[in-house]
Amino acid sequence: MKQYMLSVHMVEGEPPPPEDQIQQMYKDVDGVNAEMQRAGAWVFGGGLHPAETATVVKVSDGEVVTTDGPFAETKEQLGGFWVIKATDLDEALAWAAKATAACRGPVEVRPFQDEPEG
Amino acid sequence: MPPRRDEIDGYFRREYGRCVASLVRFFGDIDIAEEAVQDAFTVALARWPETGLPPNPGGWITTTAKNRAIDQLRREASRHDRHAEAALLYYQDEPPSSDERAGPVKDDRLRLIFTCCHPALARSVQVALTLRLLGGLETPQIARAFLVPEPTMAQRIVRAKRKIKAAGIPYRVPGDAELPDRLTAVLAVMYLIFTEGHMATDGDNLTKPDLCNEAIRLARMLGDLMPDEPEVTGLLALMLLTHSRRRARSAPGRPLVLLPDQDRTMWDQELIAEGQDLVRRCLRRNQPGPYQIQAAIAAVHSAATVAAQTDWQQILALYDQLAVCVPTPVVQLNRAVALAEVEGPQAGLDAVDRLDLGSYHPYHVARADLLRRLGRTSDALVAYEAALALTANPAEREFLDQRRRQLAAQ
User: Fold this and answer.
1) In CATH terms, is domain A2-111 a member of 3.30.70.1060?
2) Residue ranges per domain, chain A?
3) pTM, whole model, 2 decimals?
4) ipTM
5) Which among B82, B170, B178 has CB closest to A88?
6) Packing angle between helix B211-225 and helix B108-116, nearest 10 degrees?
7) Which of A32, A41, B246, B373 could be joined to B345 by an S-S link, Cβ 3.0–4.6 Å?
8) How many whole angstroms from its chain centre is CA B183?
């Protein structure tokens, strides 16, 4: 089994959809989560607060520096993600297809590096 | 008679796809498979000139490559190379002869084609990988064929192999639900290889591989592996019928000779007969698709010994059918050209003028020709100018320039 991250990309500053659509989206995402859990594919998942709530910590000249985030000053920001187990990319892409339909945003699929032995 | 170097090369080239595909199944790793086949090649170069050809060269290559790979992996695994350990484990996990028990064996090459043409890879990458792994072309040859610097092509292939491995793109023929979409991508890759070869005009460059023959070889292979897919047959027929005209497509002083002006005695009748036979087979099966219809159109052209005998009514009917399958303005443009032959240039021009294809040079070429036939010389000249401004291919440019100068001189 490999692990994949399915990340949801959001464009910051776009007007939010009407409340009833948001509620439906939450419901659909819950549905996908439940399906992943039943299938044994679920590892972890969740939605994130907007990128304006982010804080960046880094080492600069040996000092730890904390700054107001986000790290990348772009409009497209990570909105949430799943970590899933799948036998291969096709299986991961099938989950991504369900995920994108549920969360109404493009989903990027990336493989994790092999897990350390032991 | 011991085989010569070029004969040994030939065997490896022909067997490359099959051997690499089998080794990928054994070890689950493209790099190991390719290195092993390369290793077997070195052994063959040393041994075959002494011993002569083995009775089954393809089988010999696969067995030798497999044994060499296992030896190599065992050496590396004894040094605790995790990658080698994993590959060996994968190999031992493979139950011997399970495929035989499971019924007819799907050819390993078929799995590998679907890996190479996986939608997670960009089209240009799919093309390069297919030529490399199934066609057995060397990276520099592929780079030359697509006019890409060699390091760029090498990097493209290395990255693709890395992605297949890291992302876990499977070696598998897709299930029935996905198959139509996935097969469409495979056919598109093969047709792209073919059209790239067909458009290429620098025939002087002998080091450039013949992509048309390569695409035909791949399509034949796919046809053998998937005999029940009518679009595969259709694509092969389309390639054969198009390729049958290659010698007539240029003439001394004329870099590009279009269909109506071609010397049809130069058409390759053997390819035409094979292509027409495949088209008839498709018709009997009656599950039409875009490649089959385009092949049927090519077959109608190939049945006319002189251009004036072309059955344009039938071609127009086929374009109507194609427009239903593939509702694009490009198909409508081709249909309009056929319409002009049936109902006259004004009807054709009316249909062309309804299309929004101003950035597509064949649109201006078609308009220019229809305007010329209607005697609207100055409008035709403007259309040729527009076509020239959008054309990069040197042979096409020269052809358009000739047409324009002939018209201006009238």
Assistant:
1) yes
2) 2-111
3) 0.86
4) 0.86
5) B170
6) 130
7) B373
8) 13
